[in-house]
Amino acid sequence: MPIVVAGVLGAMSVVAANSWMNSPAGYTLRHGKITSVDPVSVFFNASTPYETAHMVLAAYMVTGFVVAGVYAVGLLRGRRDRYHRLGFAVPFTLAGLAAPLQVMMGDIIARFIAHNQPVKFAAMEYVSRTTRDAPEWVGGVLINGHVYFGASIPAFDSILAGFSPHTRVIGWDSVPAAQRPALVTLIHLSFDLMVGLGFFLFALAAWQGWWWWFHRRLLVTAWFLVPAALSGVAAVAAMEAGWVVTEVGRQPWIVYRVMLVSDAVTPSRGVPVTLGVILALYAILTVVSIGVPMIMSRRWRQEPPAEEEAEQVPYGPPPARASPAGPPARPAVPPASSGGPDGP
Ligand code: HEM
Hints:
Blueprint: H1 2-22, E1 27-30, E2 33-37, H2 39-43, H3 48-76, H4 82-116, H5 118-125, E3 136-143, E4 146-153, H6 156-162, H7 184-215, H8 222-249, E5 253-255, E6 259-260, H9 261-264, H10 271-302, H11 307-311, H12 336-339
Antiparallel strand pairs: 1-2, 3-4, 5-6
The structure holds protoporphyrin IX containing FE (HEM).
The site of protoporphyrin IX containing FE has 29 residues, from helix 1, helix 3, helix 4, helix 7 and helix 8.
């Protein structure tokens, strides 16, 4: 429990900094100088609750689907032992529960953006002129003010933004050209990708949930396991797309309506050195985190443990069967007879 609380508070602290850049608050500016700061208002600015909730749910989805995806590959390769079934079922359940909450939270945060950062919202939804009955564009590329290769749903953007086709949606024509984001197509497609993947992951979780509800079993058909194996990659892609929407959508501002990115560029000459060190560090971390599991798995294949031993994984569930040395161990989950051959 303390780890969960510390993790959520840590995420909140990091995201609060980004939220402040979207909704600056808690300071007084006089003649270009900050004269007073209220740290509580800085931390709990208008965007903090929305962005924190969205990011914490994203973190649970990414972690859960990535771990479940690894075990889905094992299940696809025919490893149906209890370790693989539990290794899939536990993180998939966690991420699957977060998925519908994330879709709901995404909808709420999008409406908040429509009011709080309308130009970002206009870029997300291709709204060039302030209008009622604004259509919802799915996909499409913006070239010379026209959307190509996209599908438009009449008035749906107005309905999403204010529950009525007559809701007025502010377009990017509301600000001078110099204050509009330059990469509108990137913002829109990143938003579509995030939303599309969010619904894909929700559907995947609902499919397994429905199957579990009626059959009390894990779905182990290739039709389910192949997308499940890709769910981790999909969740990471959705999270990265979300950050693109937040950051590129705020351009040209680094602090919304206070400071331009061009004014925030550091004059320091040490940047290439620190960038090089960080790239080298992450290259080493990447090689180690891929290489170590590969070496471990090769060693495991060369000297496979006995079946009894294989179940006693560090921090893993207790074995379902009694050990000859002691009293019968209590199974961590219902035995296979209640869950069928594919129950976890
Ligand atoms: C399915 C419906 C979804 C909607 C409508 C939605 C909506 C949004 C919006 C409007 C933003 C911009 C927030 C801002 O600039 O303040 C955003 C950001 C973000 N989204 Fe989503 N999102 C959805 C799904 C997802 C999913 C599935 C993930 C990841 C698993 C995700 C991860 C993120 C992240 C990491 C950010 C940036 C940080 C933050 O604002 O918390 N989103 N999303």
